[in-house]
Amino acid sequence: MIKKIIGLLCVFFLMISCKETEKQRFVRLLNEWLGEIVYYPSGMCFTSYSKDSVITKCDKSIFPYTILNYVDSTGCFSCRLQLSKWKELIAEFDSITPHKLDFIFIFNSQDERVLARLLKREHFTNFVYIDEIDTLNKINHFPKDENFQTFLLDKDDRVLAIGNPIHNPKVKELYKKVILGDETFKQIPHKNTTVKKDKSVANLGSFPSEEEVVTEFTLTNTGDTPLVVVDVVTSCGCTTVEYSRKPVLPGKGLKLSIKYKADQPGYFNKSVKVFCNAEKSPLLLNITGNALTD
User: Where does 47-206 have alpha helices with state H?
Assistant: First the structure.
């Protein structure tokens, strides 16, 4: 099984469009974590926060595969949870991998009440473990980079792959291939094209923090084959993107409407990555500004 995983990962690395240093980090973390066992704190109990009740269980479900997502307390915690994207991913995986995959969410938060309110507000009913003293991380010494704090595990809690599937669609495809088998799930290949951005950064200026602001980017297909957007990933849950899923013909443009609703006042610099069949994918867009207090 491990040899098969290594083969899939080698193909995965060849597909990644990124700088050499990023590839080296992938390889280093893979070598460190592949085959390692993730250990859980004794007496760990999971809680589901629904709208009307709180359910607790103290036994981990047994599935052939588990996606473990750990979120530490650094930075904008509520932004980093990305609960809506996780709900979409869970629904997608449940539809193609029934009875094969479990999800474990470990949140290092020292304020359970605030987190519980957030989970209820987002209608996030999956079981979570609120690790107030960061015991899980202290036992396992997870990478500090949030992009590598998510793991695909086998039934014995051995690491099969690493990477956050809601941050990178290629990681999501890799997880699918591992779970379904190399020959079961195949990504449809697309010929590369070239893309011109009307701008790389949009400054939204200063605005009241309770207001939602909107800006627009345009990607023009300057190549000779249709532009296909595979996924659009934002750096936090405060930012959402709307765009057409239809292929963009050569010479035509794709408009991306980006909405930002501040989670807290202050200056911000948020990123949006567009994964597509462009030669320089993912395309990086940024929005900046200052959300003012009353």
Answer: 77-81, 83-96, 112-121, 135-140, 169-180
